Amino acid sequence: MTPTRANEPQASRDDMPTAQGRRVALLSEKLARHLSPEVWQRLFHGPGYGSISFEEKQQTLLYAEAPGSDIMNGRERDSLAAEIEWLAARHHGRVDCFHDGAGVVLFDDPTACVRMAMDLQRSANDLRLRMGVHTGNCDIATFRSDLDSCCTLIGPEPALAAKVAATAAIGSIAVSPETYALVREDIHTDAGGCLLMEEFHDSDLAQVCLTPAPTKSNEHALSTFAGLGR
Fold first, then answer.
1. What pLDDT is stored for residue 179 in this prediction?
2. pLDDT digits (tens, 9 = 90+) for 135-184
3. Of 41, 31, 43, 49, nearest in space to 9 by CA
């Protein structure tokens, strides 16, 4: 439930276009669950308001969740978040840090998204992540929180990516038909190190499921995160 703030003003402003007002209201509701009251107030009713902007564009989303994430310890959560940040930068993705219970990364390049998913699944093998990759027209909000530039999704696409992830086996990556149509050749080229590549013919949510082989202990790890939990 979104926290209630005493004497909270309306998120929209009288001179704001209706569509813009709806976007700001959605963003306000979402960020109220993640920002402190002071930071939230500065963003929506203070000097940070002018930094808010919105953009609609096609993006490919990586949605990664760990079964039992509610019982992960603090070290595991911090390490997973750091690994997602590190790999997102390496593959030129943008992390949405304001999504409950899962890692969400946005990509212009769908092939880069699938490659990051395979790298993350290999390096975080012990967490047995379940991932979904989905491409769609996204509504992206950008803003400044203190000195940091941030972005988050306010449309339905993360929920669709979550549904794709729900079709994946634990330790695997499900790829939606929309994404698979864009990366089919690249997936077949890159999937040589996968333990399983299965195509679905009876699902509207997932077209293919990939299970990358884990990084072996005697191999050079992708990052210091590899082997977490061993």
1. 94
2. 999 999 999 887 788 999 998 999 999 999 999 888 899 999 999 999 98
3. 41
Task: Give the pair of three-digit tokens for residue 38.
Answer: 């002071």
DSSP state, residue 120: H
List all residues 6 or more positions away from 192 whose beta carbon is below 8 Å from its beta carbon: none
Q: Which two tokens stand for residue 118?
A: 């395979």
The stretches of the chain forming alpha helices (DSSP H) are 18-31, 37-45, 74-90, 110-123, 157-166, 177-190
DSSP letter for 191, please: G
Whole-prediction pTM value?
Answer: 0.81
Supply 229's token pair.
Answer: 């939990």
**pLDDT, tens digit (0-9, with 9 covering 90-100), for 209-230:** 888 876 654 444 444 444 333 3
Question: What residues have CB less than 8 Å from 31, skipping those under 6 apart?
Answer: 40, 43, 98, 152
